[in-house]
Amino acid sequence: MKLAVFDFDSTLMDGETIDLLARANNSEAEVSKITKEAMAGQLDFYDSLKKRVATLKGMPLEKVYAVCNHLRYNPGAKELIAELKTRDYKIVVFSGGFDEAVSAGQKALGYDMYFSNILHRKNNILTGEVGGEMMFAYSKGRILEKLQILLNATYETTIVVGDGANDISMFKYASKKVAFCANIVLQEAANIIIDKKDLMLIKTYLD
Fold first, then answer.
1. pLDDT at position 110, please?
2. Long-range contacts of range 151-155, CB-CB < 8 Å, 24 or more positions apart?
3. Is the distance from CB of 109 to CB of 102 less than 8 angstroms?
4. Quick count: other Cβ atoms within 10 Å of Cβ 62?
5. Which positions ≥6 away from 108 have C-beta within 8 Å?
6. Which member of 7, 88, 99, 195 is catalytic?
7. In whole angstroms, what is the distance from residue 16 CA to residue 174 CA?
8. Which of 21, 23, 93, 136 shows a CA-CA span of 20 to 30 A to 71?
């Protein structure tokens, strides 16, 4: 089984979902500062995630969906996923972001499965808390290892694509480690570096 695993925010999607939600909730400046520290590996992912989501407390769920249903995707995202399907890859997204965005992305781009986090809500209002499958810096690697066993995929038949420090954990399990418009922390762990914002440039490296 050939397996392609993508990060979502700033990899398939153009930007960070949490920043877009914060902008809609007037907490953008606070969240932006925390996001930059986290992506550069200067702040623990779990702590930074909780801090960022806390700024969304009181946001109506309908406003969350309004943002997530109008996301912009990076050039080549849909085309690369279509190309991967013609080559018999299973395509999975691992996101430290949120189900509301990644499920919208699945409808738009057509990937097979995703793992993400969930914004807690009560009476359709965000509580400022978060939970899910991608809460820690090691989560992506841990889930990828399990997924490879389930799908009978191997190190040699797996390609991973990401942009930030929390993608490093999944690089260990893939022969093709793609840093896409990534920070220096991830570039140093990669063996394929794409600096131009065009996901179809990855096509050259596919089997």
1. 98
2. 151/1, 151/3, 151/90, 152/1, 153/1, 153/2, 153/3, 153/90
3. no
4. 9
5. 71, 73, 78
6. 7
7. 24
8. 136
- Domains of the chain, by residue range, sit at 2-205
pLDDT for position 43: 80
- Residue of 171, 190, 169, 172 lying closest to 180 (CA atoms): 190
Our measurement of the distance from residue 62's CA atom to the centroid of its chain's CA atoms, rounded to an integer in Å, reads 22
End-to-end Cα separation, the chain, in angstroms: 12
What residues form DSSP beta bridges with 119? 130
Q: Which residues of the chain have pLDDT under 70?
A: 39, 41
Q: Global pTM?
A: 0.94
Note if 88 is an active site residue.
Answer: no
User: Which one of 9, 47, 99, 195 is the catalytic residue?
Assistant: 9
Return the half-sphere exposure (C-beta side, CA atoms, 13 A cut-off) of residue 105: 35
Tokens of residue 168, six digits: 């490093």
The answer to whether 14 is a known catalytic residue is no
pLDDT number for residue 159: 98
- The CATH number fitting domain 2-205, selected from 3.30.420.40, 3.10.310.10, 3.40.50.150, 3.40.50.1000: 3.40.50.1000
Vertex 102 angle, CA 19 and 50, to 5° = 50
DSSP conformation letters of 145-204: HHHHHHHT--STTEEEEE-SGGGHHHHTT-SEEEEES--HHHHTT-SEEE-SS-GGGGGG
